Each structure stands twice: as C-alpha cells, then as structure tokens.
Amino acid sequence: MSTIGISRRGALALPALFGLAATTRGAHAQGGLKRVRIAVGTTNLNLAYPWLTLPVALGWWQEAGYAVEVLPVGASLQALQQMVAGNAEFAQLNSSVVIQANVQNNIPVRAVMNNGVIDWSLSVLEDGPVKTVADLKGKTIGVFSLATGGIAFLRSYLRAAGMNPDSDVRLVPVGLGAPPIEALRNNRVQALLYWASAQAGFQNAGLKLRHLRGEDWQSYPDFTFSTLQKTIEADPAMVEAIARGCARATEFVMASPDCQRRLHWARWPSTRPTGADEATLAQWDLNNLEAQLGSMHAAHAMNGGQLWGRATPEAYGRIQTFMQEAGLIQRSIDPATYMVSIPDFYTKINNFDAAATRALAAACPAT
User: Fold this and answer.
1) Residue 333, CB half-sphere, CA atoms under 13 Å: how many?
2) Dihedral (C-alpha) 239, 243, 18, 7: value to the nearest 10 degrees?
3) Which residue range or ranges hold the SsuA/THI5-like domain (predicted)?
4) Cα–Cα distance, 28 to 89 (Å, whole number)
5) Residue (of 240, 207, 217) closest to 36 by Cα position
6) How far is residue 287 CA from its own chain's centroid?
7) Which residues on neighbouring strands pair with residue 221, listed in sequence order?
8) Which of 144, 264, 275, 286 is 20 to 30 A from 231 via CA?
9) Is the pLDDT of residue 4 over 60?
10) CATH value at residue 317
11) Proportion of the chain above pLDDT 90, given as a percent
C-alpha cells in the first residue's frame, strides 16, 4: 500500500517525510495533564473509531492524566506524516503503511494495537447473475479510484480463480456516495469493490447485496494503532495508558454498540447522518458501526481471542508476504520488528475491570 501502499481509499506513495515542518508545538502539560495527539487516517471522524473516540467522550484518558486530541488528517499517509513530523504521538494507519514505512523508508513505526482485518469485498446484486468470482469474467467492476488499495487483493483473487486481472475484467472509478450505488443499480457496473463500512452504506441506501472475497483476505491485519519506537522508549507508561483506554473502549462498544452511537452523537453532533427520521438514522449508523465491529472481532480472533488489540508478528508477517508477492514492496524484514517491545504489553493494556466496563455500557451514560 514498489512504494505504492494499500489504503482504504488510495494506494499511497511514501515520499521523503522528514522534511515536513511541524505545525504545532510538541507535547506539553495542559492544566497538569500531558498533551497527547492522535492523527487518524480519515477525513470524517465518525462513530466507526470507537477505540479512539470513547475514551474522549467518557473522560478516561483525562482521568489517567492525559489531554488527548484525536485529529482526522486525511488518509493513512497524512497520519504517518503528522506523526513523523512530531505533530502527533500516535497515528491510526493501515497495516500496509506500517510495513512500507519500515521496509521502504526505514521509519521505525510500531503496531501498538491491531484494530481490524482486511475487510474489503466485492458486492454484487443479491438477485443478479453474478454468483461466484468466475461469473465476473467480461464484467465491469466499480472502484473508489483506480489507485484504491483493494485492487491488489482483487487481482490476487482473480488470478486464484484462473482469470487474467488485466484483461478479464474492466475497472472503472465511481467514487463514494450515490454514484457507485446508481452505477450498480443501472448495470453500468456489475460489482463494487469497497471496504466494509462503505458496503454498509450501500446497504443503507437499499441495495440488496451478495459479498464475494478471497478466503485469505480476513487473515491479514489492517487497521493499526501506531507509534514510533522513540515514543515507546521515551514514555512507555504513556503508551500503555493510551492503549489501555483503547482496549477498555473496545470492551465497552462490544457490550453496547448503541450506547457508543448515542455518546458519539452527543459529543460530535456534526457527524450524525441526515436525510431520514431519527430511528432510520440511528439504524444507518449502527449498520456502519457493526461493519467495523465485525472487523475488530475478526482481528481479535486472529490474534488469539484473549486480549483486545493484540498484534502478532505472525499476522504482520502474512500481510508483508502478500505485499512482497504482489510487488508492493521489494524486500521483507523480521515481522517482530513491527511489534511494541514493552514486556507483557497486551496483558498490561487489558488490565482494567472488564465487568465494570460492560456494566457502564449497559447503563449507558449518554445524555
């Protein structure tokens, strides 16, 4: 995600990052709290980032001594740039950007938490003629853009089905929102290649879909809460505290997705969807959230099913191997390099009262 990286919306080239000028001052005390900034690879901090937004909404990081800002900055590349420039202590990235940063640019990014798996799929009309990937031969597939990261997985999927990805299908960019929905409805495209939350949006619009994906896709880690090695070395207690808030938030949202929705709407009202009655809007956002929770559950199971956020060298080794075989990177490194070196890190960040957290979610302190 060569120097082309896999992202949800675009394949990103990593330029020379260290020339960036910092636009804000470094971390400093604010009223006795230590300032921490998290750059997120998105333009819309919606409710699909509960591990980052719930600790803010519920004041957990403030109680732990940290004034945390969660900053949407664009795509994963921009989040990485902000962290490298010193404008953020953490960044929410795609796993491929973590790998590229280390392999291609020698930037020591570390996987603090694995928050999801590769959740791309091909969606086709449920009552349409396409039942299997083989039925896509000669068909047109809509994508966000011709640089969108899921194309690397699509090409591998097509080759595994005995097809030539360069000649057996046609890709057309259809963007986001209404255009891909209309393109599929009107048969301008016969399939859509998008990530899970986008697919949930298509279903919110009334499309009845069947999803096709490679059997291996969900064996690869994707969303990765990250920091730099120098941050770990300088303040391991801070890294643990911030990650513990993320792990506790994950426990909370798994217990009550609707409470997460209510808290998010109260804290960030501008992110609420529009265009329908309250119950429909709530269901739309819950559908988007459930798509993300499915990816979080899959990552949890892939990494042992015991500790929220756990990242493993085995999982990051798999996505690194995929990237090298796909020609997205030219070499590999020891996958243990991507891991946080703090002993018993995932046990430490899961050291919170899970039962009390679930009870809080059930009671739901949303206003």
Assistant:
1) 16
2) 170
3) 57-258
4) 12
5) 240
6) 16
7) 117
8) 264
9) no
10) 3.40.190.10
11) 81
Does the residue 286 lie in any domain?
Answer: no
Burial class (CB in 10 A: 0-12, 13-18, 19+), 352: middle
Residue in 200, 225, 222 with CA at minimum distance from that of residue 309: 225
Angstrom distance (rounded) from CA 315 to CA 145: 27
Instruction: State mean pLDDT over 24-49.
Output: 78
In this structure, the number of other CB atoms found within 10 A of the CB of residue 179 comes to 13
Alpha-carbon span 119 to 54, nearest angstrom: 22
Domain check: are 151 and 228 in the same one? no
Domain, as residue range, for 171: 121-219
Instruction: Judge whether 293 lies within some domain.
Output: no
Judge whether 283 lies within some domain. Answer: no
2: pLDDT strictly greater than 80: no
pLDDT in tens, 148-159: 778 989 999 999
